[in-house]
Amino acid sequence: MKRIIITESQKDEILKKYSEADDKLMIYLRRNFPAVEHPEHIQDIMGKYRIMISDKSYPVINNFGYIVKKIDSYIIHEFPDLDDKKRRQTIKKYVKHFEY
Q1: Rounded to 5 degrees, what are φ and ψ at 27?
Q2: What is the spatial distance between Cα 21 and Cα 76, in angstroms, rounded to a whole number?
Q3: For residue range 49-94, what is the model confidence (pLDDT) as tens digits?
Q4: Number of other residues whose CB lies within 10 A of the CB of residue 98
Q5: Which of 15, 35, 61, 71 could form a disulfide linkage to 47, CB 3.0–4.6 angstroms apart?
Q6: Residue 49's beta-bridge partner residues?
Q7: Phi, psi dihedrals of residue 85, rounded to the nearest 5°
């Protein structure tokens, strides 16, 4: 197995790419799309968290892309001035926090 070695500048570039997050949107996501913890007896199957979207809960594990798309479709009109890339990166960062 080969190892990949990256330089500090490449590392900073990668981190910058994925660290773009809008603070106002992050607050909005926390308030309107709360994460709920599963009971311990089903955490092995369904993961630790589920996210509430429009009064329905979706387990984060194995639904990452679907949840990002669903949230994006709900908030696209709430944040029209926000760049698509930055909006989706912020949603991904929020959902990734609950992936484990």
Answers
A1: -65, -45
A2: 15
A3: 889 998 898 888 888 999 999 999 999 999 889 888 889 989 998 9
A4: 19
A5: 61
A6: 37
A7: -65, -45
Instruction: Specify the DSSP element, H or E, that contains 91.
Output: helix 84-96
- Give the CA angle between residues 67, 97, 8 to the nearest 5°: 115
Longest dimension (CA), the chain: 46
pTM of the model: 0.75
Question: Residues near 78 by Cβ (< 8 Å), separated by ≥ 6?
Answer: 28
User: Radius of gyration of the chain from Cα atoms?
Assistant: 16
Residue 67 burial (CB count, 10 A): 22
CB distance 52 to 33 below 8 Å = yes
